[in-house]
Amino acid sequence: MSQETSALDTLRNRTFDEIAIGDQAVISRTLTSQDLALFAVLSGDGGEPAAGDATGKTQASGQTPSSAVDNGAQTSVAAGMWAGTWLAALLATQLPGPGTVYRRQQLRFLAPMAAGETITLMATVTAKDAGERSVVLSCTGSGIQPGQDKPRLLLEGEVEVIAPAQTMERVRTTLPDIHATTGKGTGLRRLLDHARHLEPIPTAVIHPCDVLSLSAALAARDAGLIEPVLVAPLARLRAAADEADLDVDGLRLIDVPHSHAAAFRAAELVRDGEVEVLMKGSLHTDELMAAVVASASGLRTKRRVSHCFVLQTPHYPRPFIVTDAAINLSPDLPQKADIVRNAIDLAHVIGVAQPKVAILAAVETVSPGMPATLDAAALCKMADRGQITGAILDGPLAFDNAVSITAAHTKGIESAVAGRADILVVPDLESGNMLAKQLIYMGEAESAGIVIGARVPVILTSRADSADSRMASCAIALMLAHHYRTSPP
After folding, report:
1. Can you tell me whether residue 59 is helix, strand or coil?
2. Are strands 101-109 and 201-206 parallel, antiparallel or unpaired?
3. Disulfide-capable partner of 474 in 55, 161, 225, 486 (CB 3.0 to 4.6 Å)?
4. Residue 378 is inside which H or E element, if any?
5. Cα 393 from Cα 423, distance rounded (Å)
6. pLDDT digits (tens, 9 = 90+) for 169-191
């Protein structure tokens, strides 16, 4: 496999012998009116989708109801074919994956599908025939409509495929604007899979004095990611444990008077070689980072400390990094260079051998009146001169040009990075923080957060982060900590 190929960006199949009864794969996608219109065009009818039902929602199913006529019938067929296409994608990319031969399918469509509905398709292996290498999978499709929280069953059935005999892998295709997805959070779950074989790392959990942070630390322990050392005022720690009936017996507990002391005591544990990761609890980020960057702590390196979000959205074909959206308020050029270097190092550790780095600005042209464009151009020249290595840089690039091949081509941008970025480097903390949160709250992105540039990784999570986000952050820290054992920062 090419050095430029990402471990997280590669499709690997599962051979017949590797597949077991009960194995499952899942894919999710939101059905849009644009999807319905596209299928109408492909079927030879360029008309608009059906106007909708009494609620105003466009309705469609895999079967044409007896009352459906004209565009309504066309839309019904379109949605059923749309779901069938994504089921085929599930089999072709995940289970069994590349090399699969589709043999037959029998699907029943049980309810109409509405534009705006998020459809989740699941395939489960139910039978195998070694003589023909055939695999039978039962399939279900459920949907959650906008404003609803309960899924409803939309389709069920069965497919049969011939599974490949030999291991195959190929680079995942980057599509222009019609975006394929392997399901929300799949890339972050893949990080957990990569980290699962690593032994847990001693981790100082700093001031976990609320239920959320304490339960997150214990969940990461139970998942085999960390060996927590709880540094906190013991009375407050035990009160939080009692509130949620959490058991901290058997863990190492270090009593300190307050959160400020907890941060500095945790830094001492790193300095003394007792822990290899720091994890934020219920204290302010500035308290924690003050201890990390203090000259007396011994945690600083030659690099500027910076933060990286690792994000996965259904609307982009692979996980990507946004940096720096949490630590450096308004970095200058040397600081941005370190921010880029830190992100490249992280990309290497999580499996992206030659990450594509987009230096973001409001426009894609260098303008003396826009300092972000000047910094972007300078960073790219630094890469040309070998001052930044291990990645392909391009900038300035506006956000649309960084993530959309179509947008880049429309503007005449020919670049190895445009439309394919693995790392998005923002001009300052404010723009980065807004971008990351927009992706999380409006772009359906799952996230993980980590601070790098210090001697040890720092798990920096927010109270608003989901349990999956916290777990993925711990997985990244675990991978970094093991890397630092052989290649100290």
Report:
1. strand
2. unpaired
3. 225
4. helix 371-384
5. 9
6. 876 654 444 333 344 445 566 67
DSSP for residue 29: E
Domains of the chain and any CATH numbers: 7-172 (3.10.129.10), 306-453 (3.40.718.10)
Residue 293 burial by Cβ neighbours in a 10 Å radius (0-12, 13-18, 19+): middle
Residue 351 φ then ψ, to 5°: 110, 10
pTM of the model: 0.66
Q: 151-164: per-residue pLDDT in tens? A: 889 899 999 999 99
Q: Which of 314, 297, 305 is nearest to 32 (CA)?
A: 314
> For residue 291, what are its two tokens?
């201890």
Start-to-end CA span in the chain (Å): 27
Total Cβ atoms within 10 A of residue 34? 11
Give residue for tokens 């986000």.
469
| b/e per residue 67-102 (b: at least 16 CB within 10 A) | ebeebbbbbbbbbbebbbebbebbbbbbbbbbbbee
**What is the chain's mean pLDDT, rounded?**
84
Distance of alpha carbon 200 from the chain centroid: 22
